[in-house]
Amino acid sequence: MALEEAVDQVLALWKKATAPAKGSRAGAPSLPLRSDEPGVAKCRPNNWADFQHRVASFSTLHWFAKPLALDLLVCAQHGWVNVGPDTLQCECCHARLDCRIDERLSPEGAHKVALGLHERLTSFHLSTCPWRGNPSPASFCHLHFWSVDEALESVRKAIAAMCTELRAVSSLGHVDVDATFLDLLRARTSVSAADWPAYCNDVVSGVLDNASDAPSLDATILVGLAASGWTLRSHEASLLAHCTFCNRSAVLCTTLTDDDTSTAPAPKRHKASVFHPLEAHRWYCPWQRQLREVPGWMQCADALRNPAIPKALTSPPTLTQPVDVLAAVHAILDF
């Protein structure tokens, strides 16, 4: 009996040694090393900056028309970067995964292929790869406020941070925010057009310690930017809107700060382009688009809703497939 067990162990070791490695590194060029990660790339699932680095590798040129199971945020959650058309690669084990789905397949066939590829997001890593079965938190892939108070506090903190940034700006150029979005936000909060400016002033003044600290930017614009996930930062002679979720920055206007000398020539004024708070986000950003729940800006708009007006009933997105219902439950539990 002992002899048979020894033979089985030897055969198992031989099979393991001679079996072809799935996702072999042979012939697969590795990505350039990151500037902050000399040597071998690290697996840090809970690192938000690393997650953004992986997400930034995806582009509409190489990753488009993908089903829910292969959403780019889900791919980045499992440690993959986009290195070519329909191609993923792990920076740790350098395994490559081809995610092409034959367009000739029926919807049912394409769905089955997508589910199989989704499973490979975990299993296709090499057996020694730390990403295997160790993804980033599901909360990295969606934006969800657990309560109205949490969403409202997010808006208030963003406004306070923007007011602090604006105090260092002595001369602010013209800021043109898309009026259609501002009206859409107002309608979502159920505040009348006549009352909207005063309502936004009350929201902004509520976060200021001193009424004399009123910012130089219109209150409706501040509320609109804060409710759609933007903060402000000064860069050289410009005021930038920045989203920490999709890591997108856009120029709002030119500025002069208090540190600029009076003898320095004023920056050349360019005609300000209209800033659309939703379209300026990257296309995958949960502030303007989410697959399973309402976008972040709508959550904040609902939190800003005038308490004197009853909240309108809104229908949640319909989940028709059992797998969608199960995934929604997992998204709530895994945070």
From TrEMBL:
Cellular localization per UniProt: Nucleus
**UniProt domain NuBaID C-terminal: residue ranges:** 225-290
Q: What is its main location?
A: nucleus
Which keywords does this chain's UniProt record carry? Answer: Metal-binding, Nucleus, Zinc, Zinc-finger
Q: Name one Pfam family in it.
A: zf-C3HC
Keyword Zinc listed: yes
Return one GO MF term: zinc ion binding
Cellular component GO terms, alphabetical: nucleus
Superkingdom as given in the UniProt entry: Eukaryota
Ranges for domain C3HC-type:
48-169
Full protein name: C3HC-type domain-containing protein
Origin species, per record, is: Saprolegnia parasitica (strain CBS 223.65)
Lineage, top ranks: Eukaryota, Sar, Stramenopiles, Oomycota, Saprolegniomycetes
